[in-house]
Design a protein that fits this description.
2 domains; Immunoglobulin-like; single chain; 15 strands; alpha+beta; four-stranded antiparallel beta sheet; 19% helix
Length: 283
């Protein structure tokens, strides 16, 4: 079974003073993978500035726009149509060889092979004394422990918009456990890594209409590498395994690798950026 989705991403940038020149990179295009097929891409901006496609350092497709026209406001919109293939996240889970899997994740070869996603980053660094916030029970499988971690973070952090920002660190989240999907995801990545599990930050879209947290903006979740299985998606904001409602755009070590918009703007003074996302199931 498959589902067709239409995703519309909109952004508006306002500047206090005129902008003489600007370059933007959008990381917002759904990827093609085993569970989703990108059908079409439509991109517009209010200045009709020319754009093009490229790839970022992780191999994900980006949109680049450059304008030399003087302006103080610009709107962007992009619409993507894609087909999502239905899958059961529990369908690929085998009977685990529990002792050997824990031996494997502690081995030097495993750590070398997965070093980029075991590495601590600015946003996945645990403050001193918090490394044991969640310790794996080695009598049960890594997959079961990750499910328990997913639920633990869901209960630990209170979803609340406006209390954190893109530069919020885990020390603040642990001391005051409120935030949005990127905060849930950074903490999941940090605690999984503290238990020797390679974990990567994922950005994408979440199908609206299901009552999930985070479905009106770009969403974030984690993918953890599980021996005998591979990469499995966990959404701690909603205590879910990633499923048909999750539309992946990109992954990286943390939010900084997956920021939907980066740019260089030649201007002075303040600026304000807002964006919104709408995901619709096609009939």
């Amino acid at each position: 079974m498959s589902f067709e989705y239409s995703v519309t991403y909109s952004a508006e940038n306002n500047y206090e003073n005129p902008v003489e020149n600007a370059y933007w990179q959008f990381l917002i295009i759904p990827e093609n993978n085993d569970t989703q097929e990108l059908i079409s891409v439509e991109i517009k901006n209010s200045l009709e500035a020319k754009g093009g496609f490229s790839q970022n350092g992780f191999g994900f497709q980006t949109i680049r726009i450059n304008t030399s026209e003087r302006f103080q406001k610009i709107n962007f919109s992009a619409t993507f149509k894609l087909k999502k293939i239905s899958f059961n996240p529990f369908g690929q889970i085998p009977i685990f060889d529990i002792p050997s899997n824990y031996e494997l994740v502690k081995s030097l070869n495993f750590k070398v092979d997965h070093e980029p996603y075991l590495r601590e980053t600015k946003y996945t660094a645990l403050p001193a004394g918090s490394e044991n916030l969640f310790v794996f029970d080695t009598s049960i499988s890594i997959f079961e422990n990750l499910q328990k971690l997913n639920k633990w973070i869901y209960l630990f952090i209170h979803f609340n918009t406006g209390v954190t920002h893109v530069n919020t660190l885990l020390e603040e989240i642990i001391n005051n456990p409120e935030g949005v999907c990127q905060d849930f995801t950074h903490l999941f990545c940090a605690l999984a890594k503290a238990n020797n599990i390679p974990t990567r930050y994922v950005s994408g879209y979440l199908h609206q209409g299901n009552g999930y947290f985070g479905d009106s903006q770009m969403h974030a979740w984690a993918e953890a590498y599980i021996p005998q299985v591979g990469w499995i998606g966990f959404d701690p904001t909603n205590n879910l395994l990633v499923n048909d409602n999750h539309i992946k755009v990109a992954h990286g070590k943390d939010y900084n690798d997956c920021s939907p918009l980066k740019g260089v703007v030649y201007s002075q003074g303040a600026n304000k950026t807002s964006h919104s996302v709408e995901v619709q199931a096609e009939q």
